[in-house]
Design goal:
The complex is a heterodimer of chains A (325) and B (158).
Chain A lengths: L10 H11 L3 H12 L5 H8 L7 E7 L5 H14 L4 E7 L8 E3 L14 E7 L11 H10 L4 E5 L9 H5 L2 E6 L6 H5 L9 E4 L7 H14 L9 E3 L8 H18 L1 H27 L8 H9 L5 H12 L3
Parallel strand pairs in A: 1-5, 1-6, 2-4, 2-5, 6-7, 7-8
Chain B lengths: L11 H5 L6 E5 L8 H12 L3 E4 L6 H11 L3 E6 L4 H14 L6 E6 L6 H6 L4 E3 L5 H11 L13
Parallel strand pairs in B: 1-2, 1-3, 3-4, 4-5
Classes of the chains: A alpha/beta (325), B alpha/beta (158).
């Protein structure tokens, strides 16, 4: 019984990480694969990587499908590169719940950055994770961070009103809105509007910009007072308009986070969240190994069905058993 | 339509690591604008449970290499209908080899004269799927011939 993930010094992993640190892009790609697949080597890999993380500015981009997130990301990459930053992008698209497959098509809008060795774009499928990001997004962003990317952009799938995971993963969350999509009641609903640090009205050459801006402003004025005033910026990403302002604002937000102590607070909250998630995963993993053992999962299910145990009792018993206590 | 010598069964490593998904890049090299086939294959492989990266029309060999490298794909499907495969395929294969990516399964589709298939396979392209190929054929070919779990590999040149 040694289900504890191995963190032993694995020479191949050390070498892989070393090459990645030296800028080898293929090593970065391979590290991401190992993490995404939760390969057996992944814990040892993260053990090597973790001390080198915590430097990059993590930017989350969310908004409805078709709002222009990928096009905006493409423009942001260009602007950050102009300012001398190395940029990593994690572009998330949905996994089909029926077949488990996915079409990842965000790269198509980011081809302009081809040939720049300091831009690394990786597409990820959600693989069943709800909330707008893939489940291993945080660790993938960490590898990019450790391997020298100054900016890591996390682009969400862009479905629904509840994909708020990005706010937990990113330092600065950018919500992309488009004129003429949805009425004002959409904005009153809770959800994504509450977690935005910046709002971009994209496709701002369309009709309805003024109205949308007014609505958004109204919504924000009703929200609980925050020290950071959420800016509402206009952009036409497809033409590269308004992008410098977006990047200025993102930089300003990072400065605010750092000066106000909010940065540490968010970091702690994020780590707490992830840690609790990992504990849950670990317990579940251990219990699943008891599927057919005597007194294990299947027997417990039988007892539950016969009403010999209740759910709390059963859960606690399996928990204890999974740790041999 | 597949005719590759080695007939390995579905890789055991693939089944062992349940979290692994086969990642495929579907690329349109060159200047022809006919992407219906590429899109159908993209969609079909998605429905076969794979993660398919589609990068759109007019890709240069360097762009295809770069996308394959960053996305760490297990397979690349090249769709071409313009006849430029005689020029583009050798370049793409050369780039893949130079970058240590010869473990990536490459297959082709589109309009390719039967008499040229041998030469194309000699480049290391493992199958040529012409019109009439079913998605089933393509998907099972990929499953059979894809590299075992993307492990540590040998990394690569920068």
């Amino acid at each position: 019984m040694s289900p504890v993930p191995t963190r032993e010094v694995n020479p191949a992993i050390i070498e892989l990480v070393q090459r990645g640190m030296n800028g080898d892009r293929r090593s970065l790609a391979r590290c991401i694969t190992l993490i995404e697949n939760r390969a057996p080597e992944a814990p040892a890999l993260m053990h090597q990587i973790y001390p080198h993380t915590g430097r990059a500015h993590l930017l989350g981009i969310t908004g409805a499908p078709g709002s222009g997130k990928s096009t905006l990301t493409n423009e942001l990459i260009k602007e950050f590169r102009k300012r001398g930053h190395k940029v990593g992008v994690v572009a998330v698209d949905p996994t089909s719940t029926l077949t488990g497959g996915a079409v990842l098509g965000d790269r198509i809008r980011m081809l302009e950055n081809f040939g720049d060795k300091d831009v690394f774009i990786r597409s990820m499928a959600t693989r069943g994770q709800l909330g707008g990001l893939a489940s291993m997004t945080n660790d993938v962003a960490r590898v990019m961070d450790a391997f020298g990317k100054d900016i890591v952009i996390l682009e969400t799938v862009g479905v629904g009103q509840d994909e708020v995971d990005v706010a937990k993963a990113a330092h600065t969350t950018i919500l992309v809105e488009v004129p003429g999509m949805g009425d004002d009641i959409q904005a009153i609903k809770a959800g994504v509007l509450e977690i935005a640090d910046m709002i971009i009205i994209n496709k701002a050459d369309r009709e309805g910009v003024e109205k949308l801006q007014l609505h958004l402003k109204g919504m924000l004025s009703l929200a609980p007072r925050r020290e950071w005033q959420v800016p509402i910026l206009r952009a036409i990403a497809a033409q590269g308009e308004g992008i410098t302002e977006v990047v200025d604002s993102a930089e300003k937000h990072l400065t605010y986070l750092k000066n106000s102590g909010e940065y540490e607070k968010r970091e702690k909250a994020r780590l707490r969240d992830e840690l609790l998630g990992r504990i849950q995963e670990e317990v579940t993993r251990r219990v699943l190994r008891l599927e057919t053992t005597p007194g294990g999962l299947q027997e417990t299910l039988d007892q539950l069905e016969l009403r010999q145990l209740d759910l709390d009792e059963a859960a606690f018993a399996l928990y204890k058993k999974s740790f041999d206590i | 339509m597949e005719s590759v010598s080695q007939q390995s069964t579905e890789s055991a490593a693939l089944q062992a690591t349940s979290n692994r998904k086969i990642r495929v890049l579907i690329a349109k090299p060159g200047l022809d604008g006919h992407d219906r086939g590429a899109k159908v294959v993209t969609r079909g492989l998605r429905d076969a449970g794979m993660e398919v990266i589609y990068t759109g029309l007019h890709q240069t060999p360097d762009m295809i290499l770069e996308a394959a490298l960053q996305e760490d794909v297990d397979a690349i499907g090249l769709s071409i209908l313009s006849g430029a495969h005689t020029v583009l395929f050798p370049r793409i294969m050369k780039l893949l080899n130079e970058n240590g990516m010869d473990d990536v399964l490459v297959f082709a589709g589109g309009i390719i004269p039967p008499e040229e298939v041998e030469a194309i396979k000699a480049l290391g392209i493992q199958a040529v799927f012409g019109p009439g190929t079913t998605i089933e054929e393509t998907a099972s070919f990929i499953r059979k011939h894809v590299r075992p779990a993307a492990g540590l590999g040998t990394g690569g040149v920068q």
